[in-house]
Amino acid sequence: MLANCVNTEGSRNCICPLGFLGNGVDDCYCPENMFLRNSSCQSCPLNSVSQENVTSIIDCKCINENHFVNTSSQTCEPCPYGSLVDLTLNICQSKFI
């Protein structure tokens, strides 16, 4: 996300948009537990967390064991019986593979 800049005599003054972190010069990004969506920072689903500077809801990880982020409903849901969550892919996979 780009900063908002105002030219001043011999320089410029840049700040990140409301809700973003960053120095306003290099880049602006979302804080922890938020992700970038439609050019704004959105909260991760309830009972999930993320690092700062993430750009997708799949970067939000559920805090409950063996739960995944359902990107359609934007909620943390348990994996079905007999499967385990793959935190990298954010999906449930059969543990019998």
Strand-helix topology:
Layout lengths: L3 E5 L2 E5 L18 E4 L2 E4 L4 E2 L11 E2 L4 E4 L4 E4 L4 E4 L4 E4 L3
Antiparallel strand pairs: 1-2, 3-4, 5-6, 7-8, 9-10
Describe, in plain words, how this protein is organized in 3D:
By secondary structure, the chain is mainly beta. The chain contains no helices and 10 strands. It has strands at 4-8, 11-15, 34-37, 40-43, 48-49, 61-62, 67-70, 75-78, 83-86, 91-94. It has a two-stranded antiparallel sheet with strand order 1-2. Strands 3-4 form a two-stranded antiparallel sheet. The radius of gyration is 18 Å and the shape is rod-shaped. 18% of the residues are buried.
Q: Which sequence of strands runs across the widest sheet? A: 1-2
Largest sheet: 2 strands, antiparallel
Question: What is the typical, i.e. mean, pLDDT?
Answer: 89
- Low-confidence segments, given as residue ranges, are none
- Count helical runs: 0
The outline comes out as rod-shaped
Task: Please write the string of helix (H) and strand (E) elements.
Answer: EEEEEEEEEE
- Briefly note the structural class of the backbone: mainly beta
**DSSP, total strands:** 10
Give the DSSP E fraction (strand runs of 2 or more residues). Answer: 35-45%
**Helical content band:** under 10%
Alpha-carbon distance between the two ends: 40 Å
